[in-house]
Design a protein that fits this description.
2 helices; 430 residues; mainly beta; 32 strands
Length: 430
C-alpha cells in the first residue's frame, strides 16, 4: 500500500514537472484586447530536429540561450548561449544564421590577450593552471559601445572554474567583421555590462564578490581599453573556500545584476538581487554612494527610459516604476548610506520576472515571466497588462527592434529541461 502510494506520488510529481515544459506553435497569438498583439513568427531551436513548420528552424548553435541584442543598425541580432559557449549571429531580414562564434581559446589565441594579461586587481587563480588563457567562455550578457561597432560579451565563468573562484573574462567583438578582437579578464562571475551615454566607460558587475569594475574605452583601439576603477558595494565578498560543493549561483552576496546608467550620465544604478535594494554610484569618479531600499525583493533587471526607472522583481513577479531622479535625490539628501524610497507604481507580470524592454516611445513594456513561461505586454501610462502570450519554457532574455515591430525572446530552460530556443514575435499595435 505504502509502495503504491509512493509510486503514484512520484508519477504525480513527474507529471507536474513535465507540465511546465511548453512548446508553442508558429503563428500563436497573444490573449489581448487588440491594443497590442504578439504572434510567434519565427523560431530557432535545438530540441526538435524535424520541425513541421518552415519558420521553425533546428539550430545546433543554440544551447541554453541567455541573452540577445539587435545590432545598432538592426540588420543583425546576436544570441549568447551560456552552455553552448557560442554567440550566434543572425540576419534580421532573412532570419538566417550568418555565423557562429565559439568562445574557445587556445595558445593560438594569445594575441587576443593584451601583453599576456591574465587577471586584474590581483584576482588570484585558485586552480593550479599553467595556461590561464586556455579556456571555454560561457557567454551570458552583452552591450554595445562605439555606436555599435563593438559588442562586449561577459563570460559568466571560464569552463575550468565550476565554483567561480577565479577571474572570468569579457570578449570584445568587432561587429563589422564579427570576429573577437580582444579578451579582457574580469573579476569572478561577471553578469551585467553597460556602456555610459558618453561612450567613455564600460561598467561590469561581478555577481561573485559585490564589486563593479569600470573600463576606460575613450579610444577606438580595443587594446587601449583599460580598467580604471574597482568599486565595492558595502563589502567585498571572499572567494576563499575549499568545498567543491559551494553553489556560487546562490552564494553570491548581493548578487549584483541589473545595471543601467541614468540618461544624463551622472549616475550608475546597480540592482542587488540578493538582499534587496539598488546601489547608486557617482558615474564621474565611480564612488559608491549607497543603496536605496523600498522596492520589492529580488531586483533583477533595470531599464532607465526618460524620467523613469523600471525594475523587474524576480521572485515576486512584479515590474515596478519610479522617477529615477527622485530615487537618487532621496539618497543624496540623506546623511545615511542606506535609505528607503516608496513612490513606486507596480504591475504583476508573473513569477520569475526577468528581462524587460520598452518600445522606442516608451508607451509599452515587455516582460519575460520565467517561472510561468509567458511574455507580457504592459501599457506604461497606467502600468496595466494589455497582452499575454505563452512562451517556450523559461524565457529569460529579450530584445526589441528599433521600429518596435519585432520582439526576440530567448528561452534558456532550467536544469537541462525545456527552453533551448530563440523566438521571434511580430508586434502590432492598435
Amino acid at each position: 500500500m505504502i509502495r503504491s502510494f509512493l509510486v503514484l506520488f512520484l508519477l504525480f510529481q513527474l507529471l507536474c514537472v513535465e507540465a511546465q515544459i511548453t512548446r508553442i506553435k508558429i503563428g500563436k497569438s497573444s490573449d489581448t484586447t487588440g491594443e497590442v498583439v504578439m504572434a510567434l513568427a519565427h523560431r530557432f531551436q535545438s530540441y526538435n530536429w524535424t520541425p513541421k513548420h518552415k519558420f521553425d528552424n533546428y539550430d545546433t548553435s543554440i544551447n541554453s540561450p541567455k541573452s540577445v541584442k539587435y545590432s545598432k543598425d538592426g540588420t543583425k541580432f546576436y544570441v549568447q548561449s551560456l552552455e553552448g559557449y557560442t554567440t550566434s549571429i543572425y540576419d534580421s531580414k532573412s532570419k538566417s544564421l550568418i555565423k557562429t562564434l565559439i568562445h574557445d581559446f587556445t595558445v593560438a589565441n594569445d594575441s587576443l590577450f593584451k601583453d599576456g594579461e591574465t587577471t586584474i586587481y590581483n584576482y588570484p587563480f585558485k586552480q593550479n593552471r599553467k595556461q590561464k588563457n586556455v579556456f571555454l567562455g560561457k557567454p551570458v550578457e552583452s552591450c554595445f559601445s562605439h555606436g555599435g561597432k563593438y559588442l562586449w560579451v561577459t563570460y559568466y565563468r571560464r569552463d575550468f572554474d565550476p565554483i567561480a573562484q577565479s577571474p572570468s573574462a569579457v570578449a570584445i567583438i568587432d561587429t563589422e567583421s564579427d570576429i573577437i578582437v580582444r579578451v579582457m579578464p574580469t573579476g569572478p562571475l561577471p553578469k551585467m555590462i553597460a556602456c555610459s551615454p558618453d561612450n567613455k566607460r564600460i561598467a561590469i558587475t561581478h555577481w561573485g564578490d559585490n564589486t563593479v569594475a569600470i573600463v576606460d574605452i575613450d579610444s577606438d583601439d580595443p587594446f587601449d581599453f583599460n580598467f580604471v576603477k574597482h568599486s565595492v558595494v558595502d563589502y567585498k565578498m571572499s572567494t576563499e573556500f575549499s568545498s567543491s560543493h559551494v553553489n556560487r549561483d546562490a552564494s553570491c552576496g548581493f548578487c549584483l545584476r541589473g545595471t543601467a546608467y541614468t540618461p544624463d550620465g551622472q549616475f550608475l544604478l546597480v540592482g542587488r538581487m540578493g538582499g534587496g535594494g539598488i546601489a547608486i554610484f557617482d558615474a564621474v569618479n565611480y564612488d559608491y554612494l549607497g543603496t536605496v531600499f523600498g522596492m520589492m525583493s529580488n531586483v533583477r533587471h533595470l531599464v532607465v527610459k526618460d524620467d523613469y526607472l523600471y525594475i523587474s522583481c524576480n521572485r515576486p513577479g512584479y515590474v515596478q516604476r519610479c522617477n529615477w531622479r527622485e530615487l537618487v535625490k532621496t539618497r543624496l539628501d540623506s546623511p545615511e548610506k542606506k535609505v528607503n524610497y516608496s513612490a513606486f507604481e507596480n504591475v504583476y507580470v508573473g513569477t520569475g520576472a526577468r528581462t524587460i524592454v520598452l518600445t522606442s516611445d516608451g508607451k509599452y513594456l515587455y516582460a519575460a515571466a520565467n517561472s510561468v513561461s509567458k511574455i507580457v505586454a504592459v501599457r506604461t501610462s497606467d502600468m496595466k497588462v494589455v497582452a499575454k502570450i505563452p512562451a517556450d519554457s523559461y524565457p529569460v532574455g529579450m530584445a526589441i527592434s528599433s521600429d518596435d515591430s519585432e520582439l526576440i525572446v530567448t528561452s534558456q530552460g532550467k536544469s537541462n529541461r525545456g527552453g533551448n530556443s530563440v523566438m521571434v514575435f511580430s508586434l502590432t499595435y492598435k
